[in-house]
Request: fold
Amino acid sequence: MLDRDNLGELFGKVGVGNQTMLGIMGNNRDVSVGEIFMIYSQRDGHERVFFFRVLGLENYLRQVDDMARVAGTLMVEGDSYLSGIERNMLLSVNGRMLGYAEQRGDEWRFMSPRRLPDHLADVYRPIRGKSDEEVCRMLCTQTDGNVYVGDLQVGETTLDVPVMIPSKFLPMHVGIFGSTGAGKSNLMMVLIKSIIDSNLDYLHSPDDEDKRISAFCIDPHDEFAKGVDKYGIQSVIEAMDDGTRKKVINDFYYLTTHKKATPREIKRYTKEIRILWEEIRPRDLYSIMEFTPQMSSFIDSQFNLHRERWVKEILDMEKDPDGTPSGTLNAVQRRLRFLERSPIFIESGLSVLGEIFEAMESGRILVVNTSLMSDMEQFLLTTIVTRTLSDMRRALKSSGNLGDFERQGNMRLPQPFFTKVKTQAKAFYGKGGVGDESEVRDPRALPVILVTVEEAPSILNPELMRGRSVFKDISRQGRKFNMGLLVVSQQVSVLDNVILSQMNTEINLRLGNEREIRACIENASVNISGFENEFRVMSRGEAILTASYREMPLPVKIPLFDTVFERDRDRYKGKGAKKSEKRVL
Amino acid sequence: MLEKILTDKFRELLRLVFADISNQQDRRDEEEFSKDEIRIKEQLLDTVEPYPPDTLLEDDFLVAAVDGSGTDNLMLLDDIRVHLLSTATVVLDTNTRSEKLFDPISAVALEECLGGQPHLDVHWHSGVRNDAQKKMAETLETIYPLKDIIDIILPFFRDDSNGAISSISDFTDTDYEKHLPELREMESLISRAQMLTNQVVHDELRKVSEYAAARNVLTSDLRPKYLLLDGALSIFMHFVKKYPSMPSGFILRELASLARKEGVVLCAVSKNHTIPFAHRIAKMAQDVFGEGTKWFCHLPCKDDPGGGLHIIEDRTYIPPRLAVPYLFSFSQDNRPSRIDFDRIWWLENVLVRGDPMATRQNEKALFRDLEFMSRDARWYGYPVSLALAHEACKLSYEDLRLAREICKDVRHEIGLDTRKTEPLRADYNL
Reply:
């Protein structure tokens, strides 16, 4: 039997309702929309705890049918009073059933709302410090995982119940939606830290492959490394001793366009982003800008002719080749010209793509400062990285042994790039050795790769996704290659349906307008209809996490990065890395 | 039906009735009222001078109220009818010192003194087997805490005879002597036996239940200053025997007598009264004192100084026997209500013979308290303790539906047949 005292304070009784919406009559307490109550029910010998989320509140005075009349009388008849009113002042609370927890053996299972609590069942209001452990146990299937997002929010406060995302679901893509100022940057920093923490855990228990996560994190405002307030990812890196740091980031984690402009302490862990023209494929460009069929057929023909030299050849051309409609060359050149001006897309020199590949296959994070890049440069970089990583894994997935893999790689990837990375790739992908006969590993045994797509509507819109977008394939097949997209957007409504329908985890922060709220509710992986009011009153850092693999929409408060860093900073120090803060679910 | 109601013919029918009432009754009443008008305006009507909202009473006091509810049709088992009765007692503290005006005393304290609140009871009888009277007497004996019938009947005779009859031996040589054997049993106190319809039985049981609850307040340690009942302090008399035709009449007098002994002001408030020209008196008060003034108006009987009012001369139960009615209004938005006091108490505590001014001061002090206890914003102008008691005892349609369901369950549990509990007409969807 459950100790009901641990559920929190007794708040009220279930009044009316059905398995979806309930009305509760409770004490006249300072309840806020968004709070989660627990309803203890015993029906037919089944002990269950139903979870209920407050969506609306109404003052209720017993023995008062017409509140306005009473208020009017109090105003007009200045000498009037309300006898013994305190005990008749109640709060009528209505809201949504989120589901219920039921103990089977030693385990708590959580079910979608398909039952109803008993008549007049007791309703408990969780209290931080008292209810955390019990709630944690009951919601373990809803909150466990490797990547910490925040703490379970109950109204304006939180319980000490960490909400995590299991890494195995990251390849099924994550969406972060929120308007400016909703807390996206802080959330990204918290996620990056959580990924670092998960990789650290892997270092301590290497058998648990699930914990290895790589992330290519676009930082459009150059905030992540330095941080917004006091601490940033750099603080986490600096809190590590040399040995740990080497294992976690090797020799760099920060990518930028201009290394010289990077603060000294970060510079040590910085590499400049340089991508060779030969590493660009026509498809990369098709994924980020629109081309007419004539243009793309022209590009394709040039690519078939010149292979890796296609960009240079086109840019050097002076007139439309025979058979090409006039003006096509000019139009294509206009679109490619930004590559000539770009400091990061270079005709010759040293590319960082190989190192990015290596980092992503070793369970590392990369913070990519794109603040000095144009939109096109940022989108192309993301696309090239995504396509390269996915093509590498695709080649792996299509191979039986490393010999096959080499053939597949040569076929799918730019020759110079593949030649450069193939030895290293074989080391990652080979099961027993690096010989051609060595069996290859399943991509699912490799680190999960998460690629951030910032300002997602610019490249994940229906127009671009209709064509041969790299992201269309990733969104559909990323799971096979253990590779997911972390889609960051201010809007949901403008994203393409392919990506939205493939997205299995959504972190919904405060949204800008009614249209986005509606789109967000429609897109959510679990039914959150009725949460409209919630979105309207959300504060910075508050989110509703929905996931197709979970029954319950989870209200989450994302803590400030500085807070979590200060809490955990000791765990980064060497062998004695403290795991005291690690919460075992 | 609606097509008939909406016709001109129906309107014409109503027109005739109202014209008839106006011709026969109103005209006569109007004539009578004009005879009383000056007296009412100048002598009987006066204002209430309310306590200020932040008043601090020298002695805070308790106000108790009792109300009851019920149904004569909880269940119908062939010719047997099961009645459900509920009563609720509320005790409030004026509490001026802690600024929580008319605060209910703690539920624990109340339960300790009076048992669980509200109180539920059931009664059954068969109206067609000639056992209604017997069964009703049994139930009344069970309900009312005072068991000695002589103790129940004597207060009426004592009050009615001005103390001439104060023991059984005093019945000798009176008109009552021949009825003495009937006055010794509860069953024979029911002298309207031939009229024991379900409604009459139910009303009697309900009244006595309320009086029983009120008596429990008087015999408890609560010691309220006021004890309010819902309704009137009327007693229905047997015209031949000249004493109450039902036990409740005797019981009410027993209750009034005990209240006097305990120093508790017993009164009964009725919203639905039949005082003629109440609206005219209200209008008169408005004209004389101005709009929004709180007022009261004594309705004297023939024995009072100045005699009775013409308008109530031929009203059988106004003023009620052994009671003193007043009309009052503490809220300009509502129609006036009526309040009855025990006449014996009133003669001892309010009326000062030969000194109308002193009498008026006593009345004003009384209505000042009553007004003070009638300012709850939910029921402004009506005594809050009564309103709360009413809320506590009332049986809603849903309550009754559930009670009937439970009847069915209980019969099933104890192995009796499971008959339908809905009213019979429900079988035919009527």
